[in-house]
Write a structure and sequence with these properties.
This protein has 6 helices and 22 strands. It is mostly beta strands.
Length: about 425
């Protein structure tokens, strides 16, 4: 079992590395705005949109040479319905250097980067997540990007620590909207989050009835559908005991089983990396039935025949990480993860026929007295998606049904799966 798992992990790592290398240059439609104000359409390499980029790769056609642009070399770029502008901004770094600070004052540094446009209009809002995963919001004021200043710190009084915040950004917003007739309660209830700040800006634009551009925040996309196919199962026992019954079971050659499988899936797409990564989950029905025969024959007066029948019916919960990338009109994907199966029905019998001279008996006993109802496994699959239809080839290695330490058991499953997304 251990050797099989190590081999599988080695294969998974090799295939995953190959897929990642193949997808390094994944360009999707976008455009840049050059320093002279011209807009150039083309293709931009897919980004980790969770963190603002400090450089982009661009080409006008899919066969053109790649050009790299840093901030200040272009005015802006747009990709995946998000617009980034070149900017020089302030960032507070006091918490980055010292952890949670005990000082309410700020310690600023200057970054040159691309800021994400959240709301574009006479009153604009921008966002920057730096390399330290610190969230920063900006307004455009007096022809520059002004940091909305917020800081959490710890205040110690008589040996006790209290969490405090410096809400300087509220005063900045009051000044920014000072001639806009926004009620005080809107400022009193605001927090330093994208959703809360957007609410304030939207209120202003609803009152003024101005047309603006609002970039919707990327959220997790949930896909639901059905999946089904055919499963070929192979089970193998490995004995190392002196127990005759179990030793026979280890020697018997069981048939391969072909059975239908199917269920439902929920795929949770992560909002970053252009939805390439997702958490794929399945609830499946799965079953197998094995028949085998083993005989110990000394002579016509003394022999023993064992006719085995093993059948298990499972409800399985599969949880996998999925990586997908476009290839023409298709999306190629790879899955890897874990399975957990719970047997709700068991067929477990050995028809034992024994002849010892004039004594001839046929009895039915259990093939295995101690069985495992919960099976765990490792999964790996490769497949294609076209519109709502998917097809996948999947391999699974499981812990099997034997509870005996001295009777190893490995279950190998090979699945051909088809899915339909609602």
């Amino acid at each position: 079992m251990k050797n099989s798992i190590f081999k599988l992990l080695f294969i998974l790592l090799g295939l995953s590395f190959s897929i990642l290398m193949f997808s390094q240059e994944n360009f999707i439609p976008g455009y840049i705005i050059q320093q002279n104000g011209d807009t150039v359409k083309g293709f931009i390499e897919s980004l980790n949109l969770e963190q603002n980029p400090n450089q982009i790769s661009f080409k006008e056609t899919k066969t053109s040479n790649i050009k790299k642009y840093k901030p200040l070399e272009i005015i802006a770029f747009s990709i995946a319905d998000e617009t980034y502008k070149s900017a020089i901004v302030k960032v507070d770094q006091s918490n980055i250097r010292y952890g949670i600070s005990s000082d309410p004052t700020f310690e600023f540094r200057t970054d040159t980067t691309f800021v994400l446009t959240i709301i574009q209009g006479p009153k604009s809002l921008y966002y920057y997540c730096d390399k330290n995963r610190q969230h920063n919001f900006y307004i455009y004021n007096n022809s520059q990007y002004e940091l909305l200043e917020f800081k959490a710190f710890v205040k110690t009084i008589e040996g006790h620590d209290f969490n405090e915040i410096n809400n300087r950004y509220i005063g900045q917003l009051i000044l920014y909207f000072q001639n806009c007739q926004i009620p005080n309660y809107m400022f009193n209830n605001i927090s330093y989050t994208r959703g809360s700040l957007e609410k304030l800006f939207k209120y202003y634009y609803n009152q003024t009835r101005m047309k603006i551009s609002i970039n919707k925040e990327k959220k997790m996309k949930v896909e639901v559908g059905v999946v089904g196919g055919i499963c070929m199962t192979d089970i193998a026992f490995k004995g190392n005991s002196e127990s005759t019954a179990l030793d026979y079971l280890a020697k018997v050659k069981l048939n391969k089983d072909f059975s239908p499988t199917g269920g439902i899936f929920i795929n949770i797409n992560f909002p970053y990396h252009n939805n390439k990564w997702s958490l794929y989950n399945e609830l499946l029905y799965n079953s197998y039935t094995f028949n085998g025969f083993y005989s110990v024959f000394n002579n016509s007066n003394y022999y023993q025949n064992n006719t085995y029948k093993l059948g298990y019916y499972y409800l399985k919960l599969n949880n996998m990480i999925r990586f997908k990338f476009p290839v023409g009109k298709f999306q190629v994907f790879a899955n890897s993860g874990f399975s957990n199966g719970l047997a709700f029905k068991e067929v477990n019998s050995n028809t034992l026929e024994t002849k010892f001279y004039s004594t001839h008996t046929i009895v039915e006993i259990k093939a295995l007295e101690k069985t495992r109802k919960h099976e765990e496994g490792l999964l790996f699959g490769l497949g294609l998606i076209h519109k709502r239809i998917s097809a996948e080839i999947r391999y699974e290695i499981g812990t099997g049904i034997s509870e005996y330490v001295y009777l190893g058991c490995v279950t190998n499953r090979y699945n051909l799966m088809f899915g339909y997304r609602f």
